[in-house]
């Protein structure tokens, strides 16, 4: 019987599918240092991970029983894909499954930030009536999203899912992307009607200068996509949301831009240093924080579980 280790969990629907197809599913969470030993001892054939487990060269070389590595999600930066594939190991992911959930998290940060929810949640428990009144006064400058311009950097699956939600809210959407020069977006409503929007890419600088809010949706890369220079190009008083990867946004430059009031807020789901984001990020009252939960919805996890399981069955059976 083939054994699959789901080191960071797997939705019940995925487990059921695998078991029905004759696989044994091991749900132990094994610490990074013990991973190679555990895989060897239990003769694991398929290793399923999310973003925390590092499947590096050492693990791959030390585990001859491994035939497949599966990433529940999009980014493969925690897996040495090239090395795995050079040894004939299948490497799979679930690129489509989490787009809607990540896009909704963008709006959770955005709606929250423009009405000061993170700051309000931190401050309201502190004192009594006069405090309540002074907070009410300081949060009087909230704004609506409708009619504002959302600039999207990286117009792939999640960038486009975010754009559709923004358009449905009555926002103007502009974007930049290295490859997607033109995009046709169909927005479907609950009653079956749909509306089509066609958008054309702009230069990064043009997007940054025009946007009231900027949302980042590019994959991990060597350099910052948004560093000090790019933050300075952003419209004064605007906000930035990063749900893609920590290393693409310069956090030191971000804190500076928030502290000198060039930017009004940031919403972060991902950090340069995970799982221990810098204290300057954690304690900044203008930053809305979530702990890398973009894909952590019941629906996305069900889709991820089913998609991973089906690919495992197709490849290993
Ligand atoms: P995708 O590959 O569909 O889209 C990425 C787009 O970015 C591509 O169109 C590409 O051409 C463009 N791009 C790359 N580098 C660029 C640059 N420097 N400037 C402009 N455009 C650039 O990817 P996706 O599925 O939309 O995922 C986007 C990001 O979201 C990934 O980094 C992924 O890891 C991350 N993600 C995060 C979570 C979370 O939990 N927060 C969950 C899923 C995905």
From TrEMBL:
<dbReference type="Pfam" id="PF00389">
    <property type="entry name" value="2-Hacid_dh"/>
</dbReference>
<keyword id="KW-0560">Oxidoreductase</keyword>
<dbReference type="InterPro" id="IPR050418">
    <property type="entry name" value="D-iso_2-hydroxyacid_DH_PdxB"/>
</dbReference>
<keyword id="KW-0520">NAD</keyword>
<dbReference type="GO" id="GO:0016616">
    <property type="term" value="F:oxidoreductase activity, acting on the CH-OH group of donors, NAD or NADP as acceptor"/>
</dbReference>
<dbReference type="InterPro" id="IPR029752">
    <property type="entry name" value="D-isomer_DH_CS1"/>
</dbReference>
<dbReference type="Pfam" id="PF02826">
    <property type="entry name" value="2-Hacid_dh_C"/>
</dbReference>
<feature type="domain" description="D-isomer specific 2-hydroxyacid dehydrogenase catalytic">
    <location>
        <begin position="8"/>
        <end position="316"/>
    </location>
</feature>
<dbReference type="InterPro" id="IPR036291">
    <property type="entry name" value="NAD(P)-bd_dom_sf"/>
</dbReference>
<dbReference type="GO" id="GO:0051287">
    <property type="term" value="F:NAD binding"/>
</dbReference>
<feature type="domain" description="D-isomer specific 2-hydroxyacid dehydrogenase NAD-binding">
    <location>
        <begin position="108"/>
        <end position="294"/>
    </location>
</feature>
<comment type="similarity">
    <text>Belongs to the D-isomer specific 2-hydroxyacid dehydrogenase family.</text>
</comment>
<dbReference type="InterPro" id="IPR006139">
    <property type="entry name" value="D-isomer_2_OHA_DH_cat_dom"/>
</dbReference>
<protein>
    <submittedName>
        <fullName>3-phosphoglycerate dehydrogenase</fullName>
    </submittedName>
</protein>
<dbReference type="InterPro" id="IPR006140">
    <property type="entry name" value="D-isomer_DH_NAD-bd"/>
</dbReference>
């Amino acid at each position: 019987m083939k054994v699959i280790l789901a080191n960071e969990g797997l939705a019940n629907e995925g487990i059921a599918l695998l078991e029905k197809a004759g696989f044994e599913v091991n749900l132990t969470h094994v610490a990074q240092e013990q991973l190679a030993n555990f895989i060897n001892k239990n003769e694991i054939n398929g290793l399923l991970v999310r973003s925390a487990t590092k499947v590096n060269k050492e693990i791959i070389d030390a585990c001859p029983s491994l035939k497949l590595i599966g990433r529940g999600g999009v980014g493969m930066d925690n897996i040495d894909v090239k090395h795995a594939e050079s040894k004939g190991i299948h490497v799979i992911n679930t690129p489509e499954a989490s787009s809607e959930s990540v896009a909704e998290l963008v709006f959770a940060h955005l709606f929250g930030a423009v009405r000061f929810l993170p700051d309000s949640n931190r401050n309201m428990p502190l004192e009594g009536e006069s405090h309540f009144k002074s907070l009410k006064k300081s949060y009087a400058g909230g704004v609506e999203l409708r009619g504002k311009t959302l600039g999207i950097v990286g117009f792939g699956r999640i960038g486009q899912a975010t754009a559709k939600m923004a358009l449905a809210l009555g926002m103007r959407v502009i974007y930049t992307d290295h490859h997607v020069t033109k995009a046709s977006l169909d927005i479907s409503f609950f009653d079956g009607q749909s509306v089509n929007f066609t958008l054309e890419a702009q230069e990064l600088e043009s997007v940054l200068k025009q946007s009231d809010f900027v949302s980042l949706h590019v994959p991990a890369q060597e350099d910052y996509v948004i560093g000090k220079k790019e933050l300075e190009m952003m419209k004064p008083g605007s906000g930035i949301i990063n749900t893609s990867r920590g290393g693409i946004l310069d956090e030191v430059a971000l804190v500076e831009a928030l502290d000198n009031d060039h930017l009004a807020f940031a919403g972060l789901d991902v950090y340069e240093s995970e799982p221990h984001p810098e204290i300057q990020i954690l304690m900044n009252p203008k930053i809305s924080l979530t702990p890398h939960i973009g894909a952590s919805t019941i629906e996305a996890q069900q889709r991820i579980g089913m998609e991973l399981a089906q690919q495992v069955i197709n490849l290993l059976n």
